[in-house]
Design brief:
Blueprint (H helix, E strand, L loop, with lengths): L10 H14 L3 E5 L13 H4 L4 H6 L5 E7 L4 E5 L2 E15 L5 E20 L2 E8 L8 E3 L7 H24 L1 E3 L2
Antiparallel strand pairs: 1-2, 2-4, 3-4, 4-5, 5-6, 5-7, 6-8
């Protein structure tokens, strides 16, 4: 006798939506230094990125940088009895921003990540947690010019940044809604 809402989402529906967004080019984001949290351990400048590529700082000292993130393939979602698993396949292209606003390509990284989301009910709230379930992979570093990029250091910092900022943000902002 109580009102009830039943909502069902299938893997097919979620993967179809991901395919549509991917094909429409909607899975792209440009990130500049002013978009990063002040506490983030790496700022988008050639000085900060010099830790990973000293040649970058030598060729372009004290210049801001910009990252262009995009999906290389559609994200994939799989549903399991106790969790949702997702696979993300992305590319990050870094540019040095010169004083005249020209963007000079620096390097391209392919980044693959596996995430797991687990829904939970607490009282009258639907909640959940998001975590990285597999290694964050940087399988290919397509470098431009003479830059040598220390990929392992960058991978470690990206993992740290995701655990410090990305996962807590997803857990606090995206995974809590009231259930009537």
């Amino acid at each position: 006798h109580e009102p009830m809402l039943l909502l069902a989402v299938s893997e097919f529906m979620a993967n179809s939506a991901a395919f549509t967004y991917f094909m429409a080019g909607a899975l792209r984001r440009n990130i500049s230094n002013n978009m990063l949290p002040r506490r983030f351990p790496l700022q988008l400048t050639t000085k900060s990125m010099g830790v990973f590529s000293p040649q970058l700082q030598e060729h372009s000292p004290a210049h801001p940088m910009e990252l262009h993130l995009s999906a290389r393939r559609q994200p994939l979602l799989s549903c399991h009895p106790n969790a949702l698993h997702g696979a993300l396949f992305s590319s990050a292209e870094a540019f040095v921003v010169l004083p005249n606003a020209t963007r000079v390509p620096a390097f391209v990284l392919n980044i693959d990540a596996n995430v797991t989301g687990k829904p939970t009910f607490t009282g009258n709230r639907l909640q959940g947690t998001v975590s990285l379930t597999g290694p964050l992979c940087l399988p290919h570093a397509g470098l431009r010019g003479l830059l040598v990029l220390q990929v392992k250091r960058l991978e470690t910092l990206l993992k740290f940044g995701l655990w410090l900022f990305g996962v807590p943000w997803a857990n606090s902002e995206c995974c809590s809604c009231p259930v009537p």
